[in-house]
Design a protein that fits this description.
Blueprint lengths: L1 E4 L5 H4 L1 H10 L1 E6 L2 E9 L7 E6 L17 E6 L14 H15 L4 E8 L7 H15 L5 E6 L7 H6 L7 H17 L3 E5 L12 E2 L4 H8 L21 E2 L20 H9 L17 E4 L14
Parallel strand pairs: 1-4, 1-10, 3-11, 4-5, 5-6, 6-7, 7-8, 8-9
Antiparallel strand pairs: 2-3
Helix pairs in contact: 4-6
C-alpha cells in the first residue's frame, strides 16, 4: 500500500503533529469525500505501507521529526512556485522555502525530494518571460538538491474560475505552453535535471518532455528496495499516470490560501473553520467520530512483489 499525504491538504505544513500521532497509533480514519459519515480505518503499520508520498509547499514543521519515520520509506512532492502573496497568500517567502527545500534534501537525500513547478498560470504580471526567468533561477538554486522537476499547467475548475478572473488568469494558449516548455527543457538539460509533465493533459513529448507519474512506480521501487505490483490509480482522472494509493487527507482544510486550489471548493473561511475543529489526537484529520458515523476496516496489504519487475 502506498499512502498519499496528501493531495487534499498540506499535511506537512499544518498537520505534522497529527500525522506523527497517527504513525504512533498505527492507523488513521479517513472519511469518504462524497459521504463523510462513511469512514475507512486504514492501517499505517510499516508491514503494509510500502511508501508514503508527502505533498507540501512547506515541509519545515515536519523536518525535525522525520527520524520517527525510520521504519518507513517515503518521498516528498515539494511545490516551489515563484508567485507572490497575490496568488499564494499564506506561504513563507520564496527564499525561506528554498532553504527549507535544501534542508529537507540534505536530511533525506535529493532523490526523495521532487520539485513541483505547478500550476503554471499566466496573466499580465506572470507572463511567459517571467516563467522562463523564474524557472531558471529556481532550477539553479535547487540543482544540487533534487533530481526531478514535475511541471503542471493550470486547470480552470468551475469553482475557481471567479478567482482566476479576478487575477486576469485565462486558459493557457498552446503557443505560451510551448514557449515555456522549450525554455524549461533547455534549463533542465543544463544542470541536468529530469523534467516531466504532471498528467497527460498537455502532451510535450515532441519537445522531449515525457508525461510522468507523481506517485511513481519506479521511484517507489527504488526507495523501497523491492519491486511492487501496482495498477494505475482508478480514483484519479484518466489523464493521471499515478499508481494506486490511499489518500489520508481531507478537503477544505488547507490554509496555504492559493487562489488556484482545487481542494477548496467553498472559501478559505471554510478551511479556517475546519482547522478549528482539528484535534491532533483524533484519528480523523478534522473533528472526531460522531453519532451516526460508520467505521469500516479497509483491507490493505503490501504491494511487494517477489517476481521480477518490468520497467
Amino acid at each position: 500500500m502506498i499512502i498519499s499525504a496528501s493531495r487534499r491538504t498540506d499535511i506537512p505544513a499544518f498537520y505534522a503533529k497529527w500525522f506523527f500521532n497517527r504513525i504512533k497509533q498505527g492507523y488513521v480514519l479517513v472519511p469518504n469525500p462524497f459521504n463523510p459519515k462513511m469512514i475507512s480505518r486504514v492501517s499505517l503499520g510499516p508491514q503494509v505501507v510500502d511508501c508514503i508520498v508527502f505533498w507540501t509547499k512547506n515541509a519545515a514543521p515536519m523536518i525535525p521529526r522525520l527520524d520517527e519515520l525510520q521504519d518507513y520509506k517515503y518521498y516528498f512532492q515539494f511545490t516551489l512556485n515563484p508567485y507572490g502573496e497575490d496568488i499564494e497568500v499564506n506561504l513563507p517567502s520564496i527564499a525561506v522555502r528554498i532553504e527549507t527545500f535544501k534542508r529537507l534534501s540534505d536530511k533525506i537525500g535529493k532523490e526523495k525530494v521532487l520539485w513541483r513547478y505547478d500550476p503554471i498560470l499566466t496573466n499580465e504580471k506572470y507572463d511567459v518571460d517571467f516563467h522562463r526567468e523564474a524557472f531558471s533561477r529556481l532550477a539553479e538554486a535547487l540543482k544540487d538538491h533534487t533530481e526531478k522537476c514535475m511541471i503542471g499547467f493550470i486547470d480552470h475548475y468551475s469553482h475557481i474560475r471567479h478567482a482566476m478572473g479576478r487575477h486576469g488568469i485565462k486558459p493557457l494558449e498552446r503557443q505560451e505552453i510551448d514557449l515555456m516548455a522549450v525554455s524549461f527543457k533547455e534549463t533542465a538539460d543544463k544542470f541536468p535535471l529530469s523534467l516531466d509533465t504532471c498528467t497527460v493533459k498537455v502532451d510535450l513529448r515532441p519537445l522531449g518532455i515525457p508525461s510522468g507519474q507523481c506517485i511513481d512506480k519506479g521511484l517507489v521501487e527504488r526507495i523501497a528496495g523491492y519491486p511492487v505490483s501496482a495498477r494505475k490509480d482508478s480514483n484519479q482522472r484518466d489523464i493521471c499516470n499515478c499508481i494506486e494509493s490511499i489518500d489520508i487527507g481531507t478537503y477544505e482544510s488547507c490554509l496555504n490560501g492559493c487562489v488556484y486550489c482545487y481542494a477548496i471548493k467553498g472559501s478559505y473561511n471554510t478551511a479556517q473553520y475546519n482547522r478549528q475543529k482539528h484535534d491532533a489526537d483524533s484519528p480523523l484529520l478534522i473533528g472526531n467520530i460522531r453519532e451516526g458515523d460508520v467505521v469500516k476496516e479497509r483491507a490493505v496489504k503490501s504491494l511487494r512483489s517477489d517476481q521480477s519487475s518490468l520497467f
